[in-house]
Amino acid sequence: MIGRLIERIQKTGAPICVGLDPMLAYIPEHILERSYEEFGETLLGAADAIYHYNVEIVDATYDLVPAVKPQIAMYEQFGLPGLEAYKKTVDYCRGKGLLVIGDIKRGDIGSTSAAYAAGHIGTVRVGNKSFTTMFSNDFITVNPYMGTDGIKPFVDVCNSDDKGIFVLVKTSNPSSGDFQDKLVEGRPLYELVAEKVNEWGSWSMDGDYSNVGAVIGATYPQMSAILRRIMPAIYFLVPGYGAQGGTAEDLKHCFNKDGLGAIINSSRGIIAAYRQQQYSKFGAEHFADASRQAVLDMVADIRSVL
């Protein structure tokens, strides 16, 4: 699967992932009004609005980027209608030729991880038949806190179903250091996690890179340089660019000398671009055009340091 992502990155020339993390506050009034008129101010109305919001953004950007990353929590909060909107969003993006990274951050003991893996990137058996469930992502994010027992079931599905995962290593949020930076025998915990990810990655190689990737925040550039050395064949999924403060200069250590090795995520910086002063000329009616311009600007910015 990582080979397919690399092919898409090389084809578009954009190591960029659009984070489809819709919040009702981001959605222009004309979309909300249309959905509420049909379904009322209900969970179904909210889910319908976020789906149509996603569709317009995807239509405006799918030819520019290789992948999208829907954050499942933004859909789960609306209950079953929200999960149906997630499913429809995943299907729509795949129909446009995009790879989908389900940002689910799951991780548990072996049997539970196996169930998460089957539900989100694999298949589930019912009697003598196998079924792809409603989620059907290409990649997912996973939490390594429970160790190898929690990760191996995901890697097994990567190998059996040609899928990929990104394991949390050093995240972009301000309090990530509460645990991730703690010293264990004189070394920060995130380095020890990175070494395990490198080991897990060797179980599912696809050419020069592994189907097991790592989440590395753009907001800690000095750490990304160290982690790049520890994990040379691991693809980085990099949040934190733009709205969270990460810059193109901060990203350069995430990449290898071949210009590959990382895909940079931007969520509200793209999907809510029309709310930013530099894109305000587009207005709410043309919010998707603002998103397209934000992608183009992001591509140029990242290319400037590669």
Principal-axis shape equals globular
Tally of helical segments: 13
Instruction: Return the domain count.
Output: 1
- By helix and strand content, what is the structural category? alpha/beta
What is the CATH class name? Alpha Beta
Distance between the termini: 24 Å
Q: Main β-sheet, in a few words?
A: 8 strands, parallel, barrel
The CATH architecture name reads Alpha-Beta Barrel
Short key terms for the protein model shown above:
8-stranded parallel beta barrel; single chain; alpha/beta; TIM Barrel; 13 helices; 17% strand; 45% helix; 306 residues
What's this entry about, in short?
The protein has helices spanning 2-12, 29-39, 43-61, 73-76, 79-95, 110-120, 148-161, 177-180, 189-201, 221-230, 248-251, 268-271, 287-303, and strands at residues 16-18, 67-68, 99-106, 123-126, 129-132, 139-142, 164-170, 183-184, 187-188, 205-206, 209-210, 212-216, 236-238, 262-266.
Question: How would you explain this protein's 3D organization?
Answer:
The protein is of the alpha/beta class. It has a single domain, classed as Aldolase class I (TIM Barrel, Alpha-Beta Barrel). Helices cover 45% and strands 17% of the residues. It is globular and about 60 Å long. The longest helix is centred in the first third of the chain and has 19 residues. The two termini are 24 Å apart.
